[in-house]
């Protein structure tokens, strides 16, 4: 399957993408994680991306699209992928459509995670991620690690993302509403959007997502 995951910051995209990718046996491609990996390796792309990310703004389309395209063309993504955080505006959605068309393939679904803004703020304030792998995500109270400050999966140090400060989160939410939400209508016009609530226990949301995707698949 080829799926796009969309939702505001803190909706649980990364949390659900890890689980869905495992269940559906497709790679989880997160542009946020790819940028963070570049930042920790101190590449030129990482240095460029950091200034935009720390301010809560989108990294320019040109470098983002090239990075996402390069990752989607890796051998593990030939039969499907789950995109998390890409596309993030209509220009990126159009670039993705053009790329898929050139390969004669299509998206199967756009999974839209709905969550109220006050919950987003609580989730982001308590989020802690692993220095070794930013897909290892915890929450101080909702999904606390067994030992405070230590990743359950690999023993790495847990830290708070630089862009998780209150001010930056406000900017990220505004950017989501003005630039990313329009892609939901863009994909609705293609009949691809499946919306589920991202409130409740993590396992329950994964179950909800798999059921919604199965229904979508049956209509193809
Ligand atoms: P990115 O890393 O994609 O961040 P985001 O979209 O803002 O989303 P988050 O990672 O904040 O949240 P999430 O929905 O993954 O939630 P999570 O699962 O962690 O992007 C960061 C930046 O990179 C952007 O601002 C931009 O600058 C740049 N960027 C990335 N892609 C780009 C693109 N395409 N174009 C341009 N720029 C781009 O969950 C949050 C917390 O809640 C966790 O602590 C988790 O444990 C907890 N939680 C999850 N589910 C539940 C639940 N059901 N109940 C209780 N707690 C829960």
From TrEMBL:
EC assignment: 2.7.4.3
Residue numbers binding AMP: 31, 36, 57-59, 85-88, 92, 161, 172
Record InterPro entries: Adenyl_kin_sub, Adenylat/UMP-CMP_kin, Adenylat_kinase_CS, Adenylate_kinase_lid-dom, P-loop_NTPase
Chief localization: cytoplasm
Keywords from the UniProt entry: ATP-binding, Cytoplasm, Kinase, Nucleotide biosynthesis, Nucleotide-binding, Transferase
Gene Ontology MF terms: AMP kinase activity
Pathway(s) of this molecule: Purine metabolism; AMP biosynthesis via salvage pathway; AMP from ADP: step 1/1
Keyword Thylakoid: no
Subcellular location: Cytoplasm
Record-annotated Adenylate kinase active site lid domain positions: 127-163
Residues covered by region (NMP): 30-59
Residues annotated as binding ATP: 10-15, 127, 137-138, 200
Entries under Gene3D superfamilies matching the protein: P-loop containing nucleotide triphosphate hydrolases
CDD domains, per the entry: ADK (cd01428)
Assembly: Monomer.
Comment on protein domains: Consists of three domains, a large central CORE domain and two small peripheral domains, NMPbind and LID, which undergo movements during catalysis. The LID domain closes over the site of phosphoryl transfer upon ATP binding. Assembling and dissambling the active center during each catalytic cycle provides an effective means to prevent ATP hydrolysis.
Function: Catalyzes the reversible transfer of the terminal phosphate group between ATP and AMP. Plays an important role in cellular energy homeostasis and in adenine nucleotide metabolism.
Family: Belongs to the adenylate kinase family.
Protein name: Adenylate kinase
